[in-house]
Structure formats: structure tokens, C-alpha cells
Amino acid sequence: MSGNHDHGHDGHSHAGAHAHDANKSRVLIAAILTAGFMVAEAIGGVLTGSLALLADAGHMLTDSVSLVLAWYAFHLATRAATARMTYGFDRVKTLVAYTNGLTVFVIALWIVYEAWQRLNEPSPVLGGPMLVVALIGLAVNIAAFFVLHGGDRESLNMRGAILHVVGDLLGSVAALVAALVILMTGWYTIDPILSVLIALILFRSAWSLVREAGHLLLEGVPASLDRDGIARDIAAHVAGVREIHHMHVWSLDGAKNMATLHACLDEGTDAHATVSAIKQRLAGSHGISHATVEPEYGHCADDHHEHDGHEHHHGRTAAR
């Protein structure tokens, strides 16, 4: 069996490391901005009697923790692989993205619950101070959003961080609109109505993130790749390959794609040269940076497992 030794260009490696460090710094800045204003908003909520501000402060507390976890995931990903963690720590970013999506679900449910409480028991709020705090919060969240928006949006971890900040941004907009309506009309019901609207938006975004991160954690084929199409492409373009089977394609974090496969070769084919050609095709045409290729002549080495009930299907392209 031949493993893949990454022989990437130094320029690509340096560019990837630079992008990773930039993402890490952006998440840390956003975490500091969010945590700092969370304290200010909580104080403002107590002083104005605004449950909306207190609720948003609680939301930002959760987001601050999530952003710190996202930063730590980027930090862990720089650690080298170990004898126990042979793939390194890149998948921590996917796990954190999945967790972030789940926490957004919980936050949205809490918002709906709080909105129901406020509809049943509306309470007076100091609209003027609430408006000031909401404006400051809006400015802080816009700043945090633009800090993160300039990062790598291919990263699920970064997308999870952006999702939290967008939730805070929407919360600030809702608090701002609610403060204006309360000042002009005294209609307190606007606050829970806008809160439910925000919760619906958060539900939709969180579902998308959890579904994609969960797919990666289950080692599903990335949405951008077609496993059977890749197998057909290799058989068609790499000389000496009769068929590809037992092919598995997955991704650690949505960006680093990997594959294992069996390549059935024509008799007399140079196995080393063909395996090298397959890996070059996978990397150059399909964005699969790490591949393990098992060359075969004649029968598959795994055929002896069939009597155990682990049947291996040999199609012309790939096996599930």
C-alpha cells in the first residue's frame, strides 16, 4: 500500500499557513469585541430595565464562548500529528463548527421562549438609554462581522464564527428598532415580535451549518466532489488502470480532502509510476491532497472477507 507524502509547493504551504494565522487572529479579535460589549450590554440592561438588552447580553455571552472555542480550534489545528492523532487536529475545527450550530439552535429556542414570556407579560423599558446601548452594540457587531468576513469562508469553523456574529448583529438591529418604536409609540410588543423573526433566521442558518459539519464528521463525500466521477476519470486518464474500486473520499475540515482506493492495474504496468500518476491526477484535477492507493493485479486482496458477510462489490468505477 502506498501512502501519500505531500510534496506541495512551498508557496502554497506558506499561503495556507498565512491564511490560517489570519483566520485565527480574526476570530480572536471578534471574540474580544463580543465579550467586551457583552459586559457593557448587561450593565445597560440592568440600568434601563430592558429585558431585550439582557437577553442579547446572554446571547453574546454564549457567542463569546463559541468564538473563543473557534479560536482554540484554529490553534489546535497548527499542532503536528501524533502517534495517537495521526491525522493531526484539523477535524477539531469541524467539531467546533458542529457544536456552534447546535448552540445557535439552543439560543434560537431560548429567544422564542423569552418572546412568549414578553408577549404575556410586557414590561416598561427606558427607550432612550436602550437606543444608545443598541447603537453601540450595532457598531461593535458590524466591526466584528467585517473582521471575520475578510477571512476564509471555505472554513466551516470560520463560517460558524460568522454565524454567531450575524446573530448578534441581528439582535442589535432588533434592539435598535424596538427602542425606536417604543420611544415613538410606547408599543412594547414590538420587541418579542422582532425576536421571533431573528430566531427563525438563526434556525435556518444553524441547520445549514449543522447539516454540512455533520456530513463531514460522518466522513461523507464533500458536496464539491463526485466519488464515482473521480474513479471514472482516473480509469480514463491514467494509463494502465483497468478499474478503481473500494474508493472512499472524505474531508477533515471542508478544505483538506482525502481518499483511499484500490487500483486494478493491467499486467506489466509499473505500479509505482501508476500510483504516482493517480495521486497527481487526484491532487491536480480534484483537489484531493492526500491519497492512499493500493495497486492490484488480478484478484482484490480483500476478496477473502466476502465469506464473512462483508461483501465488496467490484464495479467498473468504485465500490461503496
TrEMBL record:
Residues 298-320 are annotated as: Disordered. Residues 298-311 have a biased composition (Basic and acidic residues). Residues 232-296 form the Cation efflux protein cytoplasmic domain. Its main location: membrane. GO terms for molecular function: zinc ion transmembrane transporter activity. Belongs to the cation diffusion facilitator (CDF) transporter (TC 2.A.4) family. SLC30A subfamily. This is Cation diffusion facilitator family transporter. It comes from Mesorhizobium alhagi CCNWXJ12-2. The lineage of its organism: Bacteria, Pseudomonadati, Pseudomonadota, Alphaproteobacteria, Hyphomicrobiales.
